[in-house]
Every structure is written in structure tokens, then in C-alpha cells.
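hi support,

uploading two proteins for the ticket. first:
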Amino acid sequence: MPAQLRQRPETLADGIHRLMLVDGRRAFVKRRLRAPAGFFAAEADGLGLLSVAEGMRVPGVHFFDDATLVLEDLGSGQPAPGAWARAGRGLARQHAGGSPVFGLDRDGWCGDSRQANTPMRDGWRFFAECRLWPQAVRARNSGLLASGQVEVLERLCAELPAWIPQQPAVLLHGDLWRGNLHVCASGELALVDAGAVHYGWAEADLAMLLLFGEPPAEFFSAYHEASGIDPDWRTRAPVYNLYHLLNHLNLFGGGYGQAVADSLRRLS
């Protein structure tokens, strides 16, 4: 880490610090000595793409290397009046930015799982080959999925056009659970942890917001009004969220086995 970044860091958690830069700016530092190759570069690039989209606020990137990411410190607070509605409209603006292909020109990370972003024009093929099936193979090889469950996943991958309607590729956060909607000191909401950014289905971002404690109703109302999205997206959320449940199964083990099994039963 450059010398100008070593200014009496305040440790917030293992590998997470706050410090003052020599020019007076406060910074939020992630430090991981054995980070996988490209881990912090993917997050820095993702934050840059989200910033250009001018949807929701994101922290600026001061510096990164293989082991360190230094970000603008947004502080922490409570949501200001109207902040959730503004965040919903901001996400809708972000999702208005499209691409002729799904994926990205580099791979990313969803948690500690490498996330393939091979560019494809077919969204169903992309979701099958770069999202569901790699997680299924990983879980099968680790003994976390039974053969019958793998067969259900294989059928689902083949039948995605029957489950998911035609949609354009838009700019996604990609790991959009509520914990990655950060409340800044100003009371506004910002997107953080952007290593999974790519172009995909807008419904997939919304679906993950239902997994681990969804935002208030005004967030979704504002998003719906600004985007005009098909309100039936919630009925398809289990398909999108199966990817994240499988990822959690692979990262954290059998504690997620029941959630995956329940989801596969609903989708079989």
C-alpha cells in the first residue's frame, strides 16, 4: 500500500479499515493478502461502470492492487426521508443502460466464487452456461447435490425460455442483496461490493433483493413506476435466486442444502 494511505487506520473488521488520506479525504480500505487474482480489480471496474450509469451513488475508487482496495468513505447512517424511493428510481436508471450482449469483457466475483461473464447474445444460454450450470457442477462434484437434483437443474437450463420471457441485457449489480444497499452518513443509499457487475436481466437484480430481507415497499413502487417492468417478475424470482442459493451452498456448505432442495422442488 502506498505510504500516503497509511494514516492510523481504524479497524472495523478483519481486513476492513477506515483511515485519513494525506489530502484530508477519509477512505474505506479492504485488505486481503491472499485475494484471488483479479478480485479487487473486478470490484474497482464494477464500481466504475455503476458510476458511469449515474443510477445510484457508489463509492469512488482511490487505489487498488492485488491485495488492497481503497474507496471513498461514505460513512454510515439511517435512511433519510424519501431515500428508498430515490434508490428505486436510481436502480431503474441504472437498468436503463443496455448492451447488445449478456456478460462482460472480463470475469467477476460473486462473493468468493469466480463468475464467468463470457459475452453472449442469448440471455437464456448465458444464464444457463455462466450462472446455473457451473454452480450445479461444482455442488455435484463436492457431493452437495444428489443426482436427481442435478437432473432437475439440467432440465431447467434446457427449458429456461419457458420460464423467463425475452428481455434485454442491462447493467446489473449482480450481487444485490439488501446488505449491498449501503446507507451513507448523508442518509442516501449507495451500491457497494460491485465485483459481480455485468449485463443481464433486470429481473435478476430485483429477485435477489427478496432473498435476505427485502427493501421497503416504496423502493419497489418507485422502481416499477420509473422502469415500467413487468410486475410478474416476482413469480420468476425463484429461478433467478436459485443461482445465489447454489452459490451460497458451494461457499458455505450444507446449511443451504434445504433451501436449494425446496427451490428445486418448486421448479421441477
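and the second one:
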Amino acid sequence: MNRVKYIGLDVHQATIVAAVLDDSGKLVMQSILETKATAILEFLHGLSGTLQVTFEEGTWSTWLHDLLLPHVAKLVVCNPRKNALLKDGSKSDKIDARKLAELLRADMLSPVYHRDSGVRQLKELARSYSALTKDTIRVMNRLKSLYRSRAIACAGRQVYAPRQRALWLERLSETGQHRRAEPLCQQLDALQALRQQARRDLLREARRHPAASQLRQVPCFGPVRVALFIAQVQTPFRFRSKRQFWTYCGLAVETHGSAEYRFVAGQLARSKRAVLVRGLNDHYNHELKNVLKGATTLACSRPGPFHDFYLALLDKGMKPAMARLTLTRKMAAVTLLLWKKGERFDAQQLKPQAA
């Protein structure tokens, strides 16, 4: 009889703790493996039955996913932010591995998408560009904070310009601050050069994907924004509906309710208790939300179909914050739909009630 075995892996840099449950939930094996391909595959090949494996998303997840996928019947890379059971009670590697196996057996894990959709290289370049952008902004903020600590006005971008750098450095009278500003300026120059090269590599790779030219039709979606959008979404067919996509982008409204039903004269009736709105969902793709928020900010200030859509919402009495959220959800839904169907952007299809 081909029985199912549920395997939870608690992955670390040097070791992996594995817990194996049978289909009745009984712990049949625990083992500590070296974090090497040969040791992991040897362990799996020594098990009989249909194997289902899970481990948490982390530094090793991409490598481990590609290694295990051909050797198991089901593989779930789960979201650690949603594994509340692991935070309850005592904690150790063996306990965590067993809890992961139990959650897998109960089908209570939230999977993280790890399929290869042909955009892995673009995704790596997008990560490089985003990291260099954040590092550049961080150095810029440090440089301006240095001038502001001496009450030196430094609004705008002139403080970063290499041609005016000597004049700005002269305004720092103390030797220590002068010597502190010089390496910051050198670091900024190096980061800006690296960021420009990463941008060129990102755009060159993005042009290889057919969706890039199609998504450029969407107003306020420039080449960099389109490249980052493709890298994060990977494929539009992983989302069944726009509401799923809104949740992934952090645009879904969370509501909390309780005691929703009651019996009145022997008949089941819905309670009139108001549902509490708790804001937008907490767990989402931060990079993708930043892309959509940037497009929304641009659309609210630049004439175009999305700007007209935004103004129409304001004319109906909607608050600006809710109008921006509605516009962002509309842009996300339209972009996903165009990518799925391969159609061209049509401003006539923008309808407020469809958002």
C-alpha cells in the first residue's frame, strides 16, 4: 500500500532538521541532515511511499525548491509570517520541523510562489536595481542629515552634484564633519554609477519579454516600472481574479466580524451588527505595492485617462485617500487583465464601478 508521508524541514545554514509523519499523523522519524544536496537526496530516497515536503521561505528556499521538486509528489514553500502555530509554546528545531509536518498534513500552509516562469534572470536584476536604489537613497539622507545638523539649508539636489561638491564641503567648518562628508560623497558617486549600470541591465533584459511592450501601453507605466512589475508578478495566470491580485499587492481591505447569524422566530437571519474594517492587509509584496503606488502618484498629477478617473471619484464625494486606493486597484486590475488577454489598453473601458 502506497502510504503518504508528510515531511517538515527546519532549514539552517549548516543543518536541516527533518520530521516525518505518516498519514495518521504519527511521528515515524526525526533526523538531522547536513545542508548539502547529497545528504538531503539520500534521506528522501530512503523513505517509501508518496512524499510531501514543506519548509519555510528563506535564504535557501530557491535552491532547495529546485533540488527537491523532481523527487517529491508535493512541495510547499510556506510563508513563515502566517505560521502562527510555530510561535506557540516551546520552540526548538525538532519542534518546528514537526509542527511544519503537521500543518502540511492538515493543509493549513500558505504557499509562496516558486515556479520558474522564465523571468528568474529579470527578477535577480530587479532585486539588484532595487537594492542599489535603496542604498543610494540611504547615503543621500545621511549626507543631508550631516548638513542639517549644522543648520545648513540643503534643500533640492545641488548638495549631491559633483561640480558643486567643493563649495558644499567648505561650508562644513569642523574637520571631523568634513572628513565624514568626503567618504559619503565618494560612496554616493560609486552607488550612482552602479545603479545606472543595473538600470541598463534591467531594461535590456526586460525588452526580451513580450509583455514589456504590451504593458508600456498602460499610462504612467514607464520602462523601469514595467520591468519591476514583470519581475515581481512573473506570470499573471497565478492569480485567478483581480481580488487575489489586490491581496498580493497589499490593496485588499480586511474586515473583522463575529456573531454574524442568529435565529429569529425559528428562522436563521443575519445579524445587523456592523462589520469592522481593519484597513489593508498586512502581508503583501512590498516591491510590487511600491511600483503601483508610484504609478498612482504620477497618475494623480499628470493629465490622462487615469487622472480623469481619479477626478471623477472626487466629484462623486469620495475622500482623496480612498480615491487613490480605488485608482491603484483599478490600475492593478487593468494591467493584470491586459497581460492575461494580450489586449491593448483602452481608456473607454475605465469604469468606476468596476474597481
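thanks. also noticed: The chain has three domains: 4-105, 120-208, 227-254+285-354.
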